[in-house]
Design a protein that fits this description.
single chain; about 325 residues; alpha/beta; Dihydrodipicolinate Reductase, domain 2; six-stranded parallel β-sheet; 8 helices; about 35% helix
């Protein structure tokens, strides 16, 4: 079995209630793991969290050993899941021991709250040849293969629309952005985000892309809704519309992507793509927070840092 360490399992983490029961189905008598069938070769063996009580509860539930320091899982695991969104400001610090040791890492969305942090994580990964996966479950939905095939056949692209269920932009609105990126790809010029408040659903994003295959630049829209799990629509004569089903297969796919990363050390996206996805996220965020919803070119994000959704759980000087 592939040994997995969980780094930051706090209340804004998916590992305890969604991915954990898929990896260790025997601990959950209902829900996603109702069939009690092991669907991966992963084993949750170690855990750390800034809140020892949360780590102890997680360790008890999944039979994982709780470690005292966040870097103590080096040499004990084959891969790391860095999950808790509330820790995102410090992903670069939490990841450092494992990046330097070459331990493959899954780093949850949105990867970083500034381009400086994203660059630091990526530079360490490149320097130590450490594979990294970061993204949304929508990027691994079973429907993606067919969506990409149809998008590739519909060049030049004239436009597209994405809808995704969302609570706040930072932790869930990002699903729609990364879903669009997975369907259409990069070459992003700018992002505009218009909403009343990024902490609630109801916003709309406009993504401007470079033209392809001799075509003109094109735009996509991402609509954050409260009731539409996921939908992709391509505009034009070769247009189509596809809904994403958030069933068990939807949640299992990204866990299997983690397993493949840990076992093969092959990244499903390049370091450059991880950086561009972060630019996509941050340009939209800056558009709303700083620019009144006007488009922000991805080369004009600068040193801007996105705000936190919740109070920082780490005391000042913790990573000094």
């Amino acid at each position: 079995m592939t040994r997995v360490g969980v780094l930051a399992c706090g209340r804004m983490a998916h590992i305890a209630g969604v991915w954990g029961p898929i990896i260790e189905p025997s601990v959950d008598k209902g829900g996603l793991a109702a069939a009690q069938t092991r669907m991966t070769d992963l084993r949750l063996t170690h855990v750390w969290d800034i809140d020892r009580r949360l780590a102890d509860a997680f360790g008890h539930k999944y039979g994982a050993t709780v470690v005292d320091e966040y870097g103590d899982m080096v040499g004990k695991v084959d891969g790391i899941i860095l999950d808790d969104f509330d820790s995102c400001l410090h992903f670069k610090d939490l990841a450092r021991p494992y990046l330097e040791a070459g331990v493959p890492m899954f780093i949850n969305r949105p990867f970083a709250l500034s381009l400086a942090d994203a660059g630091q994580i990526i530079a360490l990964g490149q320097k130590h040849d450490t594979p990294i996966l970061s993204g949304s479950s929508f990027e691994y939905a079973p429907e993606l293969k067919e969506i990409r095939r149809q998008v590739a056949a519909a060049t030049p692209i004239s436009g597209y629309c994405v809808a995704n269920s969302s609570t706040d932009y930072a932790s869930h609105g990002v699903h729609g952005l990364f879903f669009a990126y997975a369907c259409v790809g990069g070459g992003i010029r700018s992002v505009a985000y218009q909403t009343r408040d990024w902490r609630s659903s109801g916003g709309t994003l406009r993504i401007e892309h470079e033209g392809r295959d001799g075509g003109l630049p094109f735009t996509g829209s991402v609509k954050e809704t409260a009731n539409d799990c996921g939908r992709f629509s391509l505009c034009g004569q070769q247009g189509f519309d596809t809904a994403v089903e958030t069933n068990t297969a939807f949640w299992v796919a990204i866990v299997q992507a983690m397993q493949k990363l840990f076992q093969t050390r092959r990244m499903p996206q390049t370091y450059e793509q991880l950086y561009e996805k972060t630019q996509l996220f941050l340009a939209g965020f800056k558009s709303h927070v700083e620019c009144g919803g006007a488009p922000v070119p991805i080369d004009q994000i600068g040193d801007w840092q996105a705000p936190l959704l919740n109070p920082d759980p780490y005391p000042e000087g913790f990573f000094a």
